[in-house]
Fold:
Amino acid sequence: EVQLAESGGGLVQPGGSLRLSCAASGDTFDSYTIGWFRQGPGMTREGKSISCIDSSDGRTYYADSVKGRFNVSYDNAKNTVYLQMNSLKPEDTAVYYCAATRKNYYRLCTLPLDYDDINYWGSGALVTVSS
Structure:
């Protein structure tokens, strides 16, 4: 079993940047594919991840809504996945969750993670983009 803890959320102006961290404990990322989901204010959590990363070879996936602005990376020594968010927009305001799945068909991140296939969730980090 793995425990996930996000950090790095906060308030940022439109056009600004934030970096979220997702630290794992209890297990290493080797056995999982890690993704980021988000839940906007007054909305349900999105059913597909906005990004994911395969820590075995670094392959990534990005949803069109964040492609070119967000970058996901990992540090195996720290057992931590990062989500660097640039050029933030008010519509990026959300609680961001990191998530882990053991499903083998998500290896290599050729498709977004599905909410129903997640084995472990972090508790979330609030990102507010506002002037």
Remarks:
- The mean pLDDT is 93.
- The chain is about 0% helix and 45% strand.
